[in-house]
Amino acid sequence: MAAAAAVVEGEVRRDMWGQEYRTSSAECAAALDAYYAAFLSFGRGRVAAALRAAAADPTCALAAAHAAHAAAPRDPAGAAAFLAAAAGNLGNATEYERAVFGTLSAMVGEERNEEVALERHFELLKKFPRDILSLKRAQLICFYLGKPELSLKFVEQVLPENQDQNYIYGMLAFPLLELGKMDEAERAARKGLAINKNDVWAQHNLCHVFQQECRFREATEFMESCSPSWVACTSFLLTHNWWHIAVCYLEAESPLQKVLDVYDQNIMKELEKSDCEAAEVYLNALGLLLRLYVHGHVHPAKERLTTFLDALKEESIWHVEWLLDLLILWALSSTDELKSAHNMLESLKSRVSSMDKDRQQVMQKAIQLAEAVYEFGNGEHKKVFDILGPNFDALGYKMIGASDEQVDVFNEVWYTVLISAGETSNAIDVLGKQIRKREGSPFLWRLLAKAYSLDGRGSDALVASEKANALQVAYTF
């Protein structure tokens, strides 16, 4: 009888960081380890590993909780069933399992609440500071809420206990760079790569630093040398890392074909894989096409956009990510798919109206940006200016779940809108401030030259144009 009871209750095991949980299944334990590793490395097998763990031992509360989180984006009903299974096994669960269940129920349960989830992650990490999987989840919540300061606080809270950990320094680097602490972010990313040169998140974060500092050659050479390690990455991170390379080529004003080759061969080719997540590819593809469009490469951008326009009208991929929704909205409106674009805009408004009042207030800025993107696609630049007002800065719109580099395209939209709407003095002021942050951007200097020219300041326009040309020559690679 004692042996039978042990099987029912599950053997107490320790995961790779020492946290205790119960399972009588070695297969479940191995699958949980695989899930941890895939989650932290952005591996494409992480959902399958979580589901495998739950199937191997239906009595393991930890496995069921992780399966609920893994299934939630694609299978809400399945996630609810896994969460119920986890709740039903909490009686025999360890303290750690109950803490994980609490965080995940706040993320994917009926009473989901991001702020509650963050509070519970904070408490969990106080008790279990080696649990860098929960740290990663907490940082993801912070990212989608636009809270880099809190993300940094989370990682700093547990850093002393994790200085030997494989992924901790990449996780430290990201909020640092989002807070503009580039030197510290670079040191953290390099420290992570010294431990594991194939840490794709540390690679990605070091590229962010290079890109922000206009070290474009360094960024492309480094990332292309790292690209063999991305083979097992999710569709998102694989194509996102190539998106960074393409944007660096574009910002350096390299031959356009280099940008298009990355788009065609390294981003869109991902769609041919049987386990591809198409929405994740569209996010990076559209982000690049909008940049091409804003940088004046309208024809190649629209030509490539038409190849998957029908897929963007499928509402099944709407509302996966706020940033993707905004990019789809631009794609639809810029190709005269106005009915679908209008439906998307109304759907976004309805989505926000169903939120609690505090969240509604925050997300009104996202709706404002959506309306502006819709009008930009229509070519109504004056309306874009009227919607956003004279003091727009995309960095204040991080609640759409985007990094500085991802939202920066909306600043580029804004600069072109200011110029085309006749707000040249405002454009000169805004571009001057941005150039002081990123003096090495030829595109910014070219926009400044255009604004000067329209403002009747020919000599200043000539200086700005010559600066852009000199940078382009210096970046030739």
Describe this structure in words.
- Keywords: Repeat, TPR repeat.
- InterPro entries: TPR-like_helical_dom_sf (IPR011990), TTC38 (IPR033891).
- Belongs to the TTC38 family.
- It comes from Urochloa decumbens.
- This is Tetratricopeptide repeat protein 38.
- The protein has 477 residues and is mainly α.
- Helix content is 71%, strand content 1%.
- The protein is built from 26 helices and two strands.
- The protein has a two-stranded antiparallel ribbon with strand order 1-2.
- A hairpin with a 5-residue loop joins strand 1 (12-14) and strand 2 (20-22).
- Helix 16 packs parallel to helix 23 (404-420).
- The radius of gyration is 24 Å and the shape is globular.
- The model is unreliable at 1-8 (pLDDT under 50).
Structural class assignment:
mainly alpha
Distance separating the two termini: 73 Å
Strand order of the largest sheet: 1-2
Approximate helicity band: over 70%
> Regions with pLDDT < 50 over 5+ consecutive residues?
1-8
Radius of gyration: 24 Å
Largest sheet: 2 strands, antiparallel
Strand content: under 5%
Q: How many E-type strands? A: 2
Order of helices and strands: HEEHHHHHHHHHHHHHHHHHHHHHHHHH
Shape, per Cα inertia axes = globular
Q: What is the number of helical segments per DSSP (H or I, 4+ residues)?
A: 26
Overall mean pLDDT stands at: 94
